[in-house]
From TrEMBL:
The keyword Chaperone does not apply. This is GCN5 family acetyltransferase. It comes from the Bacteria. The keyword Lipoprotein does not apply. Pfam families: Acetyltransf_1, ACT. Residues 20-100 form the ACT domain.
Amino acid sequence: MVPGVAANTAGHTDTTATWRLRIRMDDSPGTLARVTIRLADLGCNILGLQVMPVPGGVVDELVLRPAAGLSRAELVEALAAEGADCAGVTDADVHELVDPSAAALAAVGRAVDDPAAVADVLREVLAADVVTLVPAAEANPVRTEGGHRRVFPAGRDGALVARRSWAPFVQLEITRAQAMLDLLVAVRANLSGPAVVTCEDGAMVVLRPGRPADADAVFALHSRCSMSTMFHRYHTGVRTVPRRWLHRLLMPPRGLSLLAVAGREVVALGQLIPAATGGTAEVSLLVEDGWQRQGLGTALIGRLAELGAAAGHHELTAVCLPGQDAVRRAALRAGLRAPLPEDGVLRIAIP
């Protein structure tokens, strides 16, 4: 059997069949013309053509309607006689005959509307056989299977593994797919607007950046917190915070604050403050006692990680007292990698 050609190679096609094939050839004048002339001699009608540069030549993808009675094996042999190496032939649908960039943008729109459909959308964009979402630890990106397997990171969700038996993936396709996934990540982060979180008890809370007008609400948050909660946040025995601290809490130098708002009350506060060395930012969390163990800390640390990544940081740090592991547990629940603290400092890797 010819490599890359389906098991029914020996069979003949009907007049309604449509094939997608990829052929590799030298990038020299006249090569494509010889191939198209040969296809015309075989009675094939070319419906679509896409040229994809690869190292040492080009890969041409053609969608065609073959002549009645022409087998896939005969087609591959005819192309080989013209110096074109056929990487694979598979069935196609005339509905796929759209501009690849337009198709990718339309696919992004569907994935934005339904984030759970990202694997199906990626499969469509890559014309892959299957795309599966797996934990990052199981993705094994080194295993490429001769170009027929590709791994795309999917942030805290894990990794998307794409497989295609009929032809290897080429770099142009990979770049297009990665750009689509990057756009989806940016849309998901939605850094310019608020995010809605559903707590474990069903309560809806809004996460949004803090601003100076929130000073009274943040002061009230501190007043409702217990001495234990205040001690774990500030590592000192303060009962509340001086009002002169409020502006710095809400608008830290070079950093930002993130509030969890339920109704008119601020029920949790997070901060992200970049380190002087760059690439790292310190985070802190304060969650009102009555709202603890409801997933707010997890939501805050996950959102702060997204904001940190958008700012170019690759690591979050948090100062922890001995035996204090609330921030680490929240980070782990958010899908972040957070080894045990060293010298009282917790280091959280941003994907």
